[in-house]
Structure formats: structure tokens, C-alpha cells
């Protein structure tokens, strides 16, 4: 067993758990971290970046089990609230499933690189600043209040997250603000929306590489997923407390600064991304 590889997997899991639900792009940070750590082979590294998200999503299921189970039971019993939340999640998941299955391999082949991440981080940062400087008219204060139209539009906006560096949570949360959804409801819906999308993507990537994975590889994945679960659980609780009192401006400045740093180190040759 390669202990150094397991240690690197733990670091990658920590990066995933911390960044998955913040609007700063977990995939972008995993791509950069993987290159800096010289983690695994390129093919397995890209698969790991998707599969490790299962740990972060498991943290959402654990934290919101009561609400999610209530929505499922409510939908089965025909209750309005449970049925609406369940249908909204299904509706919002459809666009990225279709586009991801169609163009996912192309995106990995051409856009999984540091320069794409840097540009997306910077552009996304300015969009967050623009969104936060607009006057917010809240029409949906709770996640159960979202309409089918809002869910559809959020699902379409989420497709931009296929570009590494964009951030799935960032695109869905900021898109929700434009649609009149409160920060708390936007964050929670983004959490829930990740369950079918990221869980499905992670399992699909592992299935595609099933013939190339060995028992030692499964141990590496397990370490990353467990660390991602623990760190994501902490971040989820912290983020909900944070958005109740603050906006996302700080994350915008972080994105812009980090994106400029990546481009500067690439341009000067300090780091060979």
C-alpha cells in the first residue's frame, strides 16, 4: 500500500470537502491540487475529481436526512410541499444530465486544465460582484417555496458548471439570487441539487473505469471520499450560518485573486500548470 498516495488522496478529499459547496469551484481546485501534488495518473486523477464528490454529497444527505426523507414521503403521499421539492429537483437535474452525458468527455479532454480554471474563476468572480450589487427582491424565502419555473432556470444555469472553474454551487446559488430566491434557500437548493447530479456523475465515472481500477485504487478512493464527507459536513453547517449574515462578495474577491495568481504563475513560468 502506497502511504504517500493515500496521504495525497486525503488532501484531495479535504480540498473537495471544503470547496464543493462554496462558490469557488471544487473541480477547479481539484485539478490544480492534483497537478501540484502529482497525484495519480492523469486518467485516474480526473476520475477521482468526480468520484470524490460522492463523499461531499453524502454529507448533504446526512445533514438534511429528515427534510429529504420528509419530501420523498410527502411526494409519495401527494402532499404539496414534498411533491413540489421532489419535482423541482428532478426538473433542475435534467438539463445537466443531458448535456453532461453528451459533452462530458469533450469537456474533460479540452477544458480540464489550469488556464480554463483561472479564466472561469475570474469571470465568475465578477458575475458574483455584479449579482451582489443588484437590489434583491426576494420572492422565495424557503427552499419549499421555489416554483417549477425557477427550478427549470436554475437547472439550465447549472449547465455552465460543466466548465471547470465555474463552480456548480456558485452558478446555482448566484443564479438563484437573480431569480429572487433568498440566500439560505439558494444554498439549500444547491446542496440538494447536487445529490442526483454529483452522485450520478461520480458513480458513472467509476463505472467507466471499472476495468482499470484495482483493490489498492479502491482504497485511495475510499480515503478521499471519507475525508470529503467529514470536511463537507463542517462546511455545510458553517455556510448556512454565514449566508444568514453575509453575502458572497468575499468569495468573488477570492476567485478573482486566485485566478489572477494562476495566470501570473503560468505566464512567468513559476509554476508549470
UniProtKB/TrEMBL annotation:
Catalysed reaction per UniProt?
A: di-trans,octa-cis-undecaprenyl diphosphate + H2O = di-trans,octa-cis-undecaprenyl phosphate + phosphate + H(+)
**Looking at the UniProt record for this protein, which Gene Ontology cellular component terms does it annotate, in alphabetical order?**
plasma membrane
Domain of life of the organism encoding this protein: Bacteria
Primary location: membrane
Q: Name the InterPro entries on file.
A: UppP
The compartments listed are:
Cell membrane
- Provide the membrane topology annotation: Multi-pass membrane protein
One Gene Ontology MF term: undecaprenyl-diphosphatase activity
- The Enzyme Commission number assigned here is 3.6.1.27
Q: Which Pfam families match?
A: BacA
GO aspect biological process, one term: cell wall organization
Keyword vocabulary terms for this entry: Antibiotic resistance, Cell inner membrane, Cell membrane, Cell shape, Cell wall biogenesis/degradation, Hydrolase, Membrane, Peptidoglycan synthesis, Transmembrane, Transmembrane helix
Query: Where do transmembrane segments lie in this chain?
Result: 47-65, 85-104, 110-131, 189-207, 219-240, 252-270
The record makes one more remark, namely: Bacitracin is thought to be involved in the inhibition of peptidoglycan synthesis by sequestering undecaprenyl diphosphate, thereby reducing the pool of lipid carrier available.
**Family membership:** Belongs to the UppP family.
The record's annotation in NCBIfam families points to: PRK00281.1-2, PRK00281.1-4, undec_PP_bacA
Role according to the record: Catalyzes the dephosphorylation of undecaprenyl diphosphate (UPP). Confers resistance to bacitracin.
Q: What is this protein called?
A: Undecaprenyl-diphosphatase
Q: What is the originating organism of this protein?
A: Acinetobacter junii
Amino acid at each position: 500500500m502506497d502511504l504517500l498516495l493515500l496521504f495525497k488522496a486525503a488532501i484531495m478529499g479535504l480540498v473537495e470537502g471544503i470547496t464543493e459547496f462554496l462558490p469557488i469551484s471544487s473541480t477547479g481546485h481539484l485539478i490544480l491540487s492534483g497537478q501540484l501534488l502529482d497525484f495519480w495518473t492523469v486518467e485516474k486523477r480526473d476520475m477521482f475529481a468526480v468520484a470524490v464528490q460522492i463523499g461531499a454529497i453524502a454529507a448533504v444527505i446526512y445533514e438534511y436526512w429528515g427534510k429529504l426523507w420528509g419530501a420523498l414521503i410527502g411526494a409519495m403521499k401527494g402532499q404539496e410541499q414534498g411533491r413540489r421539492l421532489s419535482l423541482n429537483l428532478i426538473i433542475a437535474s435534467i438539463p445537466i444530465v443531458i448535456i453532461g452525458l453528451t459533452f462530458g468527455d469533450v469537456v474533460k479532454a479540452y477544458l480540464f486544465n489550469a488556464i480554463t480554471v483561472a479564466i472561469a474563476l475570474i469571470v465568475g468572480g465578477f458575475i458574483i460582484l455584479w449579482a451582489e450589487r443588484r437590489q434583491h427582491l426576494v420572492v422565495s424565502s424557503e427552499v419549499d417555496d421555489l416554483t417549477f419555473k425557477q427550478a427549470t432556470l436554475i437547472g439550465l444555469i447549472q449547465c455552465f458548471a460543466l466548465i471547470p472553474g465555474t463552480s456548480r454551487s456558485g452558478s446555482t446559488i448566484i443564479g438563484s439570487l437573480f431569480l429572487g430566491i433568498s440566500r439560505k434557500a439558494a444554498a439549500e437548493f444547491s446542496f440538494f441539487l447536487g445529490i442526483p447530479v454529483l452522485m450520478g456523475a461520480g458513480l458513472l465515472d467509476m463505472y467507466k473505469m471499472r476495468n482499470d481500477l484495482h483493490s489498492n485504487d479502491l482504497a485511495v478512493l475510499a480515503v478521499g471520499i471519507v475525508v470529503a464527507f467529514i470536511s463537507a459536513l463542517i462546511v455545510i453547517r458553517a455556510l448556512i450560518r454565514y449566508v444568514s449574515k453575509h453575502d458572497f462578495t468575499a468569495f468573488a474577491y477570492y476567485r478573482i485573486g486566485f485566478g489572477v495568481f494562476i495566470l501570473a504563475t503560468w505566464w512567468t513560468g513559476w509554476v508549470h500548470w
